[in-house]
Design a protein that fits this description.
By secondary structure, this protein is α/β, with parallel strands linked by helices. It has two domains: 2-205 and 385-400, 3-Layer(aba) Sandwich (Rossmann fold); 211-382, Rossmann fold, CATH 3.40.50. 47% of the residues lie in helices and 15% in strands. The protein is built from 16 helices and 13 strands. The protein has helices spanning 16-27, 47-54, 64-77, 79-95, 99-120, 132-142, 156-159, 166-172, 181-190, 236-249, 264-273, 288-296, 312-319, 350-360, 365-382, 385-400, and strands spanning 2-9, 31-38, 57-58, 124-128, 148-152, 175-178, 199-201, 223-227, 254-258, 280-284, 300-303, 324-327, 342-345. Strand 1, helix 1 (16-27) and strand 2 form a beta-alpha-beta unit. Helix 3 (64-77) crosses helix 4 (79-95), helix 3 (64-77) packs across helix 5 and helix 13 (312-319) crosses helix 15. The longest helix has 22 residues, at 99-120.
Length: 409
């Protein structure tokens, strides 16, 4: 069996879960053709991401001419199919913020993807995120390519479901995957009742072997790690404001911000304005080994996000036997259990977050270790990459055996 992974920008440092999923599928005997529209924009510091980039075929790197030739060949070979697909792309573009022109570009990309799928004997296409990549897979199917499925993560898909034609993408897919029960509930809002059976939950996975022997908790004052892109939805600015309150009574508490992004200058300015230069460290993007080292040096992970799907960094911290202080949003409460594997607070409230951090600073080491051990057990039971990829592989096989369908245009 051969599956094409249709992706937008890949690999990205924050999308290592896709790489792990692909590699787990390959270990189970499924051949994977990686078709990304473009490379990721962030520098790849992890050797695993660098190796994955070398195995990925980039559609837009081929240049404009191969896409136009693929468009022309499809138009000549099956003009009626091509015209219906073009009309469909225009209709999608009219309701989308991306517009008609962008969807005609997606159509050209889809012609190339469909052609490569035929040449490689691909049985099924799978996309991650219900945005650009799924639009390309949808149009490739409309052009006569294989059926498709896609995984939604949130929050982007749930922020603009109409503009993304999310319902159309679900209804025409062989199946649609959410990474949490919360995510599945959001897909159910836009899917026809007749296709609800095609909505599935497959968790993102971690590789337990990478977390075989968790490091003991460090001694000394509370040290927190926060991991993610520096963008508004991740809530780092609220975390800086909370830290400004915390250090008034707990001056030794330290926060490590792991990541980078468009908001870095704003965060640096806020850190300087609050006089937190000795309490907050920004590391930039780190390799997976670097992230694990920072988790090992920390007592807990803090995740102050305003919007999420179900964050991979929460899973990785729990696998490292670190409890998690997170916001009560999306799928996070399905994994982080207050008083058992960590703490949950409302999103966006710096004072409540500060109070939680101050309380965390007083937790005895034995209790912290117990919470971390429970967190590790929970995530290993629910998020083993091989087990979750096995679920996905079964869905691929069922779809290719005709048990999942999608309507024709």
């Amino acid at each position: 069996m051969k599956v094409a992974y249709v992706l937008n920008s890949y690999p990205q440092p924050s999308h290592s879960f896709i790489r792990r999923e692909i590699q787990a599928l390959e270990r189970q005997g499924i051949a994977v053709l990686r078709l990304a529209m473009r490379p990721g924009s962030a520098p790849l510091v992890d050797p695993g991401d660098q190796a994955e980039a070398a195995q990925t075929e980039y559609v837009l790197r081929r240049g404009l001419l191969p896409l136009l030739l693929a468009l022309l060949r499809r138009g000549v070979a099956a003009p009626a199919v091509f015209l219906r697909a073009m009309a469909f792309a225009i209709r999608l573009g009219r309701v989308s913020q991306a517009g008609v022109l962008r969807h005609l570009i997606y159509l050209a990309e889809a012609c190339y993807v469909a052609e490569r799928c035929r040449a490689e004997g691909v049985d099924h296409m799978h996309a991650h995120f219900g945005t650009n990549a799924t639009a390309v897979a949808l149009l490739a199917q409309a052009l006569g390519g294989p059926g498709y499925s896609f995984t939604t993560h949130g929050p982007e898909e749930f922020d603009a479901p109409v503009a993304l034609s999310l319902g159309e993408k679900i209804n025409r897919a062989r199946f649609a995957v959410a990474i949490s029960s919360f995510g599945k509930s959001q897909l159910s809002r836009w899917a026809d009742f007749a296709v609800w059976d095609r909505l599935k939950v497959v968790h993102c996975g971690i590789e337990p072997a990478r977390f075989e022997t968790p490091a003991p908790l460090p001694e000394g004052a509370l040290r927190l790690a926060a991991i993610g892109r520096f963008v508004e939805q991740k809530g780092q600015m609220v975390l800086i404001r909370a830290m400004a309150e915390v250090v008034q009574t707990h001056p030794q508490v330290h926060l490590v911000l792991i990541g980078d992004g468009e908001m870095r200058a704003d965060l640096e300015a806020a850190i300087a304005a609050a006089g937190l230069q000795n309490n907050v460290t920004l590391t930039g993007w780190l390799s997976e080994a670097g992230v694990r080292a920072e988790l090992a040096a920390s007592h807990a992970l803090v995740m102050p996000s305003f919007a999420e799907g179900l964050p991979m960094v929460v899973m990785e911290a729990m696998a490292a036997a670190r409890p998690v202080l997170a916001t009560y949003i999306a799928g996070t409460p399905e994994l982080v259990l207050p008083g058992k594997t960590g703490w949950l607070v409302p999103a966006g409230d710096a004072q409540i977050l500060a109070a939680a951090i101050a309380e965390l600073a007083q937790v005895p080491a034995a209790q912290m270790a117990s919470l971390g051990a429970a967190a590790r057990q929970r995530v290993l039971e629910r998020h083993d990459s091989d087990i979750e990829a096995g679920k996905l592989a079964d869905l691929f096989r069922e779809a290719c055996q005709g048990k999942g369908g999608s309507p024709a245009l």
